Structures are given as C-alpha cells and as structure tokens.
Amino acid sequence: MSKKYLILGAGPAGLTVACSLLKKGIKDITVLERAEEAGGLCRSVDADGRPLDIGGGHFLDVRRPAVDEFLFEYMPMDEWDRYERDSRIVVNDNVIGSPIEANIWQMKLEDQVEYLKAIAVAGCNLGTKMPEKFTDWIFWKLGSKVAEDYMIPYNQKMFGENLDLLGTYWLEKLPNVSFEETLLSCLTKKPYGTQPGHAEFFYPKKYGYGEVWLRMAQSLGDRIKYNEPAVSIDLDKKIVNDKYEADVIISTVPWKSFKSIKGLSEEAMKGIDTLLSSSVVIEYFPEMLDTKAQWIYYPDSELSYHRILVRHNFCPDSKGYWTETNLTRFEEKNNGKHFADSDKSGKASYINDYAYPLNTIGKPETMKKLLEEAASKNVIGLGRWGEHQHYNSDLVVELAMKLAQRLD
Fold first, then answer.
1. What global pTM score does this model have?
2. What is the DSSP letter of 131?
3. Residue 362: HSE in the Cβ half-sphere, 13 Å Cα cutoff
4. N or C end of the chain: smaller count of CB under 10 Å?
5. Is residue 29 helix, strand or coil?
6. Measured torsion, CA atoms of residues 100, 104, 108, 111, in degrees rounded to the nearest 10
C-alpha cells in the first residue's frame, strides 16, 4: 500500500522530519531503519555501566534555540546538563586549547616564536594566490608549522593519506585567526579570532545522546520499520525494496549504500560512484584520565587514533574515555583484528562503516546534479548522508524541520 511519505533512515534527519510531519497532522508516514533501534550515528549503548555514544562525540549545540526547543519536547531541558566546551590539542609536547591558531600563546615560548615566524610568511599574509589543492591551501593559510605539526597529519589520520583528493571549498568552516590576532594573543596571553562551534553544549544527565532519538522514535510508534535496510530504489516508480511505495521519498541514507538505483541519469549514477567517505572505530577504555578536557586531538602519527573523548568530564558519575580511529588505520595497527563488542577488561569497540562524508574535489557539482534530478522525481536527499555533507546533528535537525515546513 502506498504512503504519502516514505523516509529512509531513523537517524536525526529522518526522525526529525517524520516527527515534524506528524506534528502537522500528517500521519501517512513510514520510516525504514536498517538497525534494531533508532538514532543512526547518534545511538548510545551501555559500556561499563554508563553510556557510550557509538558514533563518536555527538552533543547538542546551544547555538540553535529552535532546534533545542524542538528536542526538549521529547526530552525536557531539565534532563540535560549544559557545559562549556573544553577541547585541547597535544602537539610537540604542548597541551593547548583548540583551535590551534587561537591558542599558540599556550605553547612553550620557543615554539610560539617558531609558529609566529611561519604564519608571518604564509601565502595568505604575503598576498599570493590561493591554491586549489587541500594541502597547499593549509600551508598558504596557516603556515608551515601549523600545517606540518597539526593540520596535515591530523587530517591524514582522520580522512586518509591522500589529502589532495579533498577540495578547499569547505575550509571556510575553519576558525579565522589572522597573523595580527595570533601575535596579539601571544603577547596578551588570551585567544583572539573566531571560535569554533560547540563552544557550549548540552548532554543528557542520566543517558547517552542516543536517548533523545529513542524517545522521538517512540512517538512515531509502528510507523518505523526496523531491520529494514533500503537496498533498492526506483525513482520513477517511487518504490523502495520493491515493496514500499510513496508519493514522496525522503532519503537520509548514503547514496552508495543502495545496491540498486533506477531512474537516475548516467551522469548522476557516475557521480554517486565518485562519492567517498571514511569509516571509524570507537573504542571505550575504563581508565580515568587526569584532565578536565572533554575532547583531546592527537596529530601524532605514531598513535592510531586521532581524538579521544573523556567521558567522565561530560557524562555524570561515569569513568573512562573513548577513542576514535579511522578504520583503515585501526586495521593496519591491529593486523585487521577487532576485539569483541565488549570484553572482561571493560573495553568495548564499535565500527561505523559510514562516519564522515569526504569533501572531495567536484563533490558540490556532483551533489547539486544528483539532488536536483532526484527532487524532480519527488525523492529528496536530506542530512549528512542524503546530502553527503559533514553536518552536525543540530544542523541536521534544523534542515529537517525546515523541510517539513515546506511539505504538506
């Protein structure tokens, strides 16, 4: 039987658009979810008696009040704690705040001098033309020291060795700190420039971040079909898995996860083949760390993981930390072996096959063509994977709410 709306994926994007439509009185909705429960990359499990977010560090930013108010309808504000973000970088035996550009003043004095010298002669400060390749852009914008000590090795650990696959169109998201501001921060011993997102965030008092998505899923009742991966889609017939038909399909799943796609042009299909993403492994360790930081970033190539999240600094009455490691690096360091989901030591590990969409050269043009062609057939791509954009969950919710407002 055909539905008015068929939503693929019960992560933040799919749940938000489904719940928003339901609030508008639209009940003719079906959501397909490949896993046994909702939440997508924002799911949480129990590890060592307290929550572990199996998709890495996901928190609710305070910058979008409309998003917060929407989610508080399902999990009231008094069930959340509010934190000031404390994120740090370990580089050259310095432990400094993030972003690196704003916190060079926290380094040893001799290192401050070397970093300032390199920034002063960076291409952007000398008026040279902005380069097109990712690695060249990093040197041009931030100078050789920041590039070689942090940005290049960290991004290789996170996204893969060949960074020149990446474009530069997304780098405006980086904090913008000028040479003058960097110098002033070193002289006055305080940060200058634009600070990154998540300067403040909410996290549940008693649960993992996945709890809010479970409650949203509960409000949808039997409209969600679990253990039902979307493996095939026909855009002309608007049918998924040769079974679920709808007037409008909203897809929040990776385009490359479909085994069969019909109804797209050859150009759009070739574009899907070019979309790249990275996989990560999340490992939990029960040891306590002597730090007040919540995030710590590690560019050191000798360490397999690129960042850790210190659970006991944002999840009340808990202990331990978890690491995030690119799956390829993890397997190289561990000879392809994974320990079980949990073991007697209290450790736990989880693999996310689709973790980060990569901002490769040509991706904006590819996605524009794909999304416009799909939308012309009432198939809408939404969210991190439907749009193949590295969106945080709060932005995904905002986009889903706006989409629902346009639908009837």
1. 0.92
2. P
3. 11
4. N
5. strand
6. 90
